[in-house]
Amino acid sequence: MSDIEIPESHPRYQSLLTRHRIEAGVEKGITSQQGLIAQGRGEAFDYLLGEETIPSADDAARVAAAHLLLADHPVISVNGNVAALCPEEIVELADAVDADIEVNLFNRTEARMQAIVDHLREHGADEVKGLTADGRIPNIDHKRAKIDADGIGSADVVVVPLEDGDRAEALGAMGKTEIVVDLNPMSRSARAATVPIVDNIMRAVPNITAHANALKDASREELEAIVAEFDAEDALEAAERAIRSSDDT
Ligand code: ATP
Prior knowledge:
Helix content is 51%, strand content 10%. By secondary structure, the protein is an alpha/beta fold.
């Protein structure tokens, strides 16, 4: 992916880079046009958050890392925006916590599924799930319910960055520990999450990896204590406070 023509000194470098990647994703058949709208909504919240990782999001990323290290079968779900924005970072996180990667689309077409699988492989993924689609999320309409039975279907911990609210709620109802990355603390996805990380995926994914690497030698007891101390409601409230008042995080 070429991150061209944006001087790093530009005050809105990260934001422009993000837009460029999403645009390139649409051109490459990875990201849907709906993905452009999701990007716009995310950008607005990122602006209000000061385009930085707030302390409560950093805490949540550490808790997410602990969950992933404790998991029997963690799976990272990837959609068109995630694939366009941070494919390498997803592969690095999967390697750090020994997770599967599964493509999971709201607007599913076989062509886009395949394009995303190929794109992730180009960025270092060995195996990418999602094409078998022999499992279902209960109570979700047929097309959007498709998952791999040996992927998200049998996962105990799922990372769902930018998930749509319906599916996030349905995955929660399946009893999965759900780690959601979403810049909107009021979205249904963030509210359905076991661990909501209110941050841009471009910052949050590498941050979870960094925490996972730092916690790699931690005992089960230490990891369980990190998980037990976390309160999702507090994390969402801290993010809402940060949005309302830029110096009150
Ligand atoms: P709900 O979860 O309330 O049903 P939604 O699924 O309708 O909301 P969408 O319009 O599909 O929400 O938007 C996707 C979500 O992804 C938005 O909440 C937006 O803030 C978030 N988002 C977009 N880009 C990013 C990003 N780069 N990092 C993190 N979150 C993002």
